[in-house]
Amino acid sequence: MRVLLVEDDAEMAQSLKASLAADDHEVEIAGDGELGQSMASTGGYDVIVLDRMLPKKLGVSVVRELRDQGVSTPVLILSALHDEDHRVEGLNAGANDYLGKPFSTRELLARVRALWNGRDREPQTKLAVGDLEMDLLARTVKRGGKKLDLQPREFRLLEYLMRHSGQTVTRKMLLENVWDYHFDPQTNVIDVHISRLRSKIDRDFAQSLLHTVRGSGYRLEA
Amino acid sequence: MRPSLSLLRTTTFRLAVAQAGVVFAFVLALLAYVYLATVGQLNADADLLAQQEYAALDRAYGEGGIRRLNQEVVERAARQGPLLYVLAESNGAVITGDFQQLPATPAVGVVENVDFNFERIDEEGSAVRGRARGQVGRLLNGPILLVARDLGDSALISGRITSVLWSVAFIGVVLSIASGLIGSWLATRRVEALAATAHEVMGGNLNSRAPVRGENDEFDELAIAINGMLDRLQHLMQVSRTAGDAIAHDLRSPLTRFRQKLEAAIEAPPNSDADREALRTALDEADNVLNTFAAVLKLARVEGNVTWRFERVNATNILRELVDFYEPAAEEQDRSLKGEVEDGLYIHGEPGLFTQAVSNLIENALKYTYAKGRVELRAVRRPDGRIEIAVSDDGPGISPEDRDRVLERFVRLESARSTPGAGLGLSLVAAVARLHKGGLHLRDGLGGHGERKGLGAVLVLPAMSAS
Predict the structure, then answer these.
(1) Is B298 in CB contact (< 8 Å) with chain A?
(2) Which of A59, B230, B297, B430 is surrounded by the fewest CB atoms within 10 Å?
(3) pTM of whole model > 0.90?
(4) What is the mean pLDDT of residues B394-408?
């Protein structure tokens, strides 16, 4: 996957580039907003990772102008200002995801993958991972043809995991996308929700679908 | 010492001077009017009378010559009345008349209007001074005739009126200037009191406050506004000062441990498992430091002058979802979390901050309650129209004297010292409450453990109507 990294802090840029390269991405770096924008509009990248505070042009303006030009490459904004109003501003400008600094490298990698996998997806009414099936219209879940009884919140959690099946999904991604919470709970709340969900979808079956990725999060995979 | 405001430079004094000018101009206009209405009228009457009398005597002279004229003058002068007569020869020597001088000796055929002072001897033989107005003219063949009206009392009256008006003008001007001086002196004193406060604050005494007299006047209003501003500034300064100290204090320990772990790892013989473990703990310490920073920044933004985009927030939904979110974790930790949330609670606010504030309260309660402990979230609309969200536990609670202190930024009771980040959670809730024009209070909680009463954290926010 070709990733454009627009980041003015050279040391940070090199370190992120190394991490992304280790995750099999081809990375190019732009050191300011104007260069980033011109590279983004011509370079044919798969994902753009954009710092919010950039010399010459702010990240939010870069996204807005790219979208106005019709460039639909998924954009992830990185920001030291991780507050509700800034996040909303970034997303309204056309960014697809917003990650506050400091973040772990695994978090960034998971989100870059999620952006790539989430692009140009047709609206679906049915999801399936192995013998686990979800009907989004009937709001039902079956595994091996057997109906599973899920709470509404468990249903949305599973839906998100199924939409990102095969990828690592971090706790933070679950918090933001399933609960729309943008703070870090001090306790292991997400893990408990996952273990409850796991007991419903995996307990009576030989093959486990919901895996824990140590240090990162979870992955639903057949 | 700072020079005090010069009285003559004050706005009030300048206004008073302008007012004195207006009073003076008004009195002048009044004077002119009264003069015309009294003195002017008197003079016009006198002129007319004298003119008619002169004409009558001129006719008598034409009919009977100097003899007849002399006779007429003697007769008329003898009558009681305000008219005075003098008949003189062509050289000006008086033949007969009320007094001995002529105010003018006109040429032949000329009649002059005159206004003059005279002196004559009255019936008792004493000299009488007076003022008169009339006509003097030289008749055919030379004799001079004067007919005048004695202005007498009426001149006196108009003179008095005039002098009274001048006095009034003078008193008016003096009073205006005096009241202006007093007014500006009073105003200056109030302004100087405000200026003195400002100078004291500039000099570093942030506790100084402008005096409020309780008269509800514009100066009180200004003083109250200035004091409010100073309170806010002082609070912010206090907050940033405490925060600076506390951040330094809170970051020092994790950074020291961080450094010590790294140093130990370098000193120790290479051992990849131990090195990895050292790096992992170092990473945790770094995260602690960064989390503390993030919490401080967030608090600063909530307390600072950032304009948050407020919207209509369905508090009922958010509260129920929070209970739903934390309930499994609570159960996992052998605690119970129950929610009792009224339908249709809405607030005007920032949903993210509101959610985080309540989640802080829930996490706090879960953290401090015991195994098998209970945490309850109750949200109701109070009769006064405000929404009360109470998160209560049956943990150790906080003694009443510590309750105010614990809401201050970074203050953390000794018992909680070892818990990272615990100093900021309640301060953030309190700051979010203030941002939403509400408040956070602490009270007894659910009780149940003997002497321990637990803790109830009560968030009170203004409600928005359900529709």
Answers:
(1) yes
(2) B297
(3) no
(4) 75
